[in-house]
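Hi there. Long-time user, first ticket. I'm pasting a complex I've been working with (about 444 residues overall). I'd like to know whether the download I got is complete or cut off, because the file seemed smaller than I expected. Thanks.
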Amino acid sequence: MAPMKVYGWAVSPWMARVLVCLEEAGVEYEIVPMSRSGGDHRRPEHLARNPFGEIPVLEDGDLTLYQSRAIARYILRKCKPELLREGNLAESATVDVWVEVESHQLHPILRDIVVQCIINPYIGLDRDQAVVDENLAKLRPLLQVYESRLSSSPYLAGDHVSLADLSHFGFMRYFMASEYTGVVDDYPRVKAWWDALLARPSVKKVIAGMPPDFGMGSGKMP
Amino acid sequence: MAAVKVYGWAVSPYVSRALLALEEAGVDYELIPMNRGSGDHRTPDHLARNPFGQVPVLEDGDLTLFESRAIARHVFRKHKPELLGSGSLDRSAAVDVWQEVEAQQLHPAAGAVVVECVFAPFLGRARDQAAVDANVEKLRNVLRVYEARLAAHRYLAGDFLSAADLSHFPILHYFMGTEYAGVVLEGHPHVKAWWEDLAARPAARKVAEFMPLGGAAKKQQE
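Hi, the file is complete. Here it is re-exported in full:
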């Protein structure tokens, strides 16, 4: 069985979503590194793989997939289906709810803070503190909901880790490397949940390719 | 009294996504109307159902779900798994990709135009024409990909109707009621044919009754 191939830059939080799932599933894979600053994602050969010109892209035999959450679902469905709980209606629905919560509630907030605080300085843009503050104000009530959720169970969809938790990893990694990491200290169960994710071998492996400044501080623009 | 309840205002494209899934699956359900203007979504009763204070919420026996895409997945998984491509890794992957494409590529652009053109007046503000123009441009780029896809396949996930196609209906229904309908219909013969096919489905027609084009004002106030 040929290894799966993942195209992209390993510092990408979207790439991280896929890599964590590959690691959790114990799948043999290779990263095909691409250069964002070199515009690799806009070249014809990449557009042939993903007409939206984005990464990650997964190749598994004849199958080419894009959109990190779809790729994650495919990998887990094929190689570690218990992380989707698809055999159980209530549990799989709960996984799906929290995958969507990350996608539509938390992600936009973490992304905006990470862009303003970590990325902008390196690309010569001023931080817009108003944007940061606006997002922090939205973040706290959101974290309160997560705190309540995680007081019922150690993981978002129950007693065991699932895609719902893993899907949070990429953007949380960078948010927790920002100066606002302390915000999470006010939510002890969220903090414990995050620490439990960090302790997973899959996460340790993937985080090694994700310097907290996206590699930009050492001159390695992704 | 139906075992399945949906809470929300049906004028919402998110609520309608859930209703469309139930209609397509032929599931008996009860819509419990809520009033946005009265803040029904922020009452303790509703926050107990959905701590994010949003609609729709689905109650299916003991299971309470929120996030419209998770709700739709649950309904299909339980009643019409073929619409998720269940049982086939390739088909289910294709469905997941195009569900994510809707969520991440199409909805942000089409949704922004709909908010400005359809809902802004009733949110008490003027249309942001710059936002409309920018999002129409983004949508044009996205639709190029859809046209190519639908030129090669009858439906988004392949030769079969799926949850991915259905997920597009509510926001596109509203978009087609704006003066920008031509952005979708013109120059995209395959998208046009796909859209007309989708909109002609009895379930879509039923749900469209809840989303009157131009009648949104009256419904929002109710």
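A couple of notes from our side: Confidence is low (pLDDT under 50) at residues 215-222 of chain B. The longest strand of chain B covers residues 4-8.
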